[in-house]
Amino acid sequence: MCGIYLDYQSAPPVDPRVAEFAERYLSSDFGNPSALHSRGLAAKAALEEARARVAELINAESPESIVFTAGVTEANNLAIRGTALRNAARGRKLLASQIEHISVLNPLKDLKKGGFDLALVPVDGMGTIDLAALESQLSKETVLTSVMYANSEIGTIEPIKEVSDLVHEKGQFLHVDASAAAGKIPIDVQKDCIDLLTLSSNDLYGPQGAGALYVKPGVRIQPVLFGGGQEKGLRPGTENLYALAGFGEAARLAKLEKAEESERLQAIRDALIKEILKIEESYLTGHPTQRLPHHASFRFSRIEGESILLTMDAMFNIQVSTGSACSSRTLEPSHVLLAIGLRHEQAHGSMVMTLGRQNNPDQIPTIANATKKTVERLRALSPL
Amino acid sequence: MAQIGYSKKVMEHFMNPRNVGVIENPDGYGKVGNLVCGDLMEIFITVKEDKVDDIKFRTFGCGSAIAVSSMVTEMAKGKTLDEAMLITRKDVADELEGLPPQKMHCSNLGADALHAAIKNYWVKIGKIKPEEVKEESHEGEEGESCGT
User: Fold this and answer.
1) Domain B8-136 class, CATH top level
2) Could you report the per-residue pLDDT of A14-44, keeping only the tens digit for each?
3) How far apart are CA A220 and CA A218, in angstroms?
4) pLDDT greater than 50 at residue B143
5) Which residues contact B108 (CB under 8 A, 6 or more apart)?
6) CB A326 within 8 A of CB B39
7) Cα A312 from Cα A305, distance rounded (Å)
């Protein structure tokens, strides 16, 4: 498939080096890491190697603090449910930003049904958490606060160190969903004093179906799934060796290459934003500077995002994303766009471009021109 | 197998919509949908010998909303007003070789816009009273629930 892919945040390809590295665990170096024979031990060694690489990416205290899961949704559920339920005796108040991923918000809402108290902390127009509101909501009863490292829809990077200082001064545990940020910007769980942190393999160009939850030494959580004793009992089930080995290799490569790649993508991204904002009544969504380096998100007045996506794809073979309600399963507008203060009709006109390895500066004029043509086409159809 | 995405016909009408535009001083004008839900369409008609002589539309909305508008204008053109009043949302969806289930309500407003335009004309010529038009209007207010 040719064309220009600009939806890396929703699904990047697996890095060919990662695929080559991990492939052996599919059919030749297979084995169950729990088995005591030589093949099992080799599988266990590969698994532990991967765990060490993932731990290094976020400067975790030790590989022991990494719990592998089958992805971000599982890791977020484990963080939220596992921490709240295990530590309920210490407090039953839960806090999160309004712009968390649904795999954070939905387990929180479920806990609320079970008797926990939940409050959502607002963000400003650029998507940055309101630290004063966070502080006012925090209390000793606040057993868990969940704030993402960066938002995948608007790219905004949250002030995690400040959040962490407040949570540890006034509340208890801090969970950070870093699935969108890892591999793009440096993450140091020790420096930021993070208790729980969610990671995704695919976001690092690793295989899908793998994720991790970092759990700070000393923080007690309980499982959400029950079965065998894998992952210290916190995530039972035979390990997905192929995906996890690939995750480890992807984390190793990300640690080595992310600074340079992020710089490269940011230059393309900045040029692209500059070009696209030349379109009449176009606006950047999210923070202009505190944003993920590969992330460009916009809204255009008087047109609708699904139509933008379809036109970009069908007419120009460029794949983008949108937070428009019309493209979602529930037909609900993006809670993130509403949280930054957009009205429904404004949220409808959103377009998200997330860059990756296969993008280059030569594509900028093509993308900008296609966007301009798309917006013009749809505005010509619009009664507004 | 469940249908994946839009039908070819929907995409064809979305990419090459028929009868786009405005008619100055139309005989009938209909506007349905609302901005909050993300679908707003307007239809202009001229009437000759009790038939839809010319018809144009403009639509703010998703792919299916635009395809539906295009299709309904094509279906109505040349029909008598009574025949055009019988075109249903389902007829339009069928002509488009189906719409995804979640799109059947919110963005399938083409027939409603057509009917609104015809009723607007009928009110003008005194065939019906203005109060008979209200019930067909889907122009919603902010906060009204979408998708129904």
Assistant:
1) alpha beta
2) 999 999 999 999 999 999 999 999 999 999 9
3) 6
4) no
5) B64, B65, B68, B89, B92, B93, B99
6) yes
7) 10
* CA dihedral angle for residue B65, residue B71, residue B77, residue B82, rounded to 10 degrees: -70
CA distance B36 to chain A (A): 5
Q: Is B68 on the interface with A (CB under 8 A)?
A: no
Residue B143 is classified by DSSP as: T
Boundaries of every domain in chain A:
4-11+258-381, 16-253
Residues A304, A324: Cα–Cα separation, whole Å: 7
- C-beta atoms of B61 and A315 within 8 A: no
**What are the residues whose beta carbons fall under 8 Å from the beta carbon of B74, sequence distance 6 or more?**
B18, B19
Give the domain A4-11+258-381 fold.
Answer: Aspartate Aminotransferase, domain 1 (3.90.1150)
* B112 vs A: CB within 8 A: no
What's the whole-number mean pLDDT along residues B16-36? 93
CATH number of A16-253: 3.40.640.10
For A156-215, write each residue's pLDDT tens digit.
999 999 999 999 999 999 999 999 999 999 999 999 999 999 999 999 999 999 999 999
Separation in Å, CA B142 to CA A9, B38, B42: 32, 11, 19
User: In this predicted complex, what is the ipTM?
Assistant: 0.89
With beta carbons less than 8 A apart as the criterion, state whether A87 and A143 touch. Answer: yes
> For residues B97 and B10, is the Cβ–Cβ distance under 8 A?
yes
**Residue A344 confidence (pLDDT):** 87
Rg of chain A's alpha carbons, rounded to an integer? Answer: 21
Among this protein's residues, is B62 annotated catalytic? no
Q: How many helices (H) and strands (E) does chain B have?
A: 5, 3
pTM: 0.92
User: Where in chain B are the domains?
Assistant: 8-136
**Chain B residues lying within 8 Å of A382, measured CB to CB:** 58-60
Average pLDDT in the A239-245 region?
A: 97
Residue B103 has a pLDDT of 81
